[in-house]
Write a structure and sequence with these properties.
With 205 residues, the protein is α+β, with helices and mostly antiparallel strands. It is built from 6 helices and 7 strands; from the N terminus they run βααββαββββααα.
């Protein structure tokens, strides 16, 4: 799976019932999980024993979890729940039919890739140790540019900041178009201009 070396392959089911009994999620989380997810299995272990990459102080193993879905979409809450309950670095392969998306959890955020035929996925393992490999896996899934030695968490935080600003600008522009009072329209325009400067974009109307 994912073009990983054969040495990484394992097959260890993760029964939902056992997960529920061990970690005891609340009723709402359990229902959402059960409604969308059919079964889970550990299908690969990326570690110094299976690939020629050293462990780091933070990361000794990366697990690949195959998630057989009941629905085409997976609520990000399910990925966050698993990631918070199980203290491991985990890459989730969300399989629905013969297609799959990849998902990871980092910096309190869930990233889900685009969908591809499952057999088309090829994971690139690059880095001198497993911490770097893990960061590059996240970057591949989240489409994050780590060129020039960028810090992944700082990049995620900056992307979040820019996304929030863009959403604020879009909401204000919608209000400005609907506003009939000249003074309020001018106030909106000034606030939009300020936010665009903060975003680093074009302030021309």
């Amino acid at each position: 799976m994912l073009g990983l070396p054969r040495a990484t392959e394992i097959n260890k089911p993760l029964p939902k019932k056992s997960l529920f009994e061990k970690f005891k999620p609340n009723a709402a989380d359990r229902k959402l999980f059960d409604d969308q997810i059919n079964r889970l299995s550990i299908v690969a272990e990326i570690s110094p024993e299976t690939v020629s990459v050293a462990a780091s102080a933070e990361v000794s193993t990366i697990y690949v979890i195959a998630v057989t879905m009941k629905t085409a979409d997976c609520d990000k809450k399910n990925i966050a729940l698993l990631s918070n309950l199980i203290d491991q670095r985990m890459l989730f392969v969300l399989q629905y039919g013969d297609h799959a998306r990849l998902a990871v959890y980092r910096a309190k955020k869930v990233f889900i890739s685009e969908e591809k035929p499952t057999d088309d996925w090829q994971l690139n393992l690059s880095g001198l140790d497993l911490s770097v490999v893990w960061e590059h896996i996240i970057a591949q899934i989240a489409s994050i540019d780590l060129a020039g030695g960028k810090d992944i968490d700082a990049t995620i935080a900056e992307n979040d900041r820019r996304e929030k600003l863009a959403n604020q600008i879009a909401a204000l522009e919608k209000k400005a178009r609907a506003e009939t009072q000249p003074r309020r329209k001018w106030d909106y325009a000034e606030e939009i201009k300020r936010l665009k400067i903060e975003l680093g974009g074009n302030t021309n109307e």
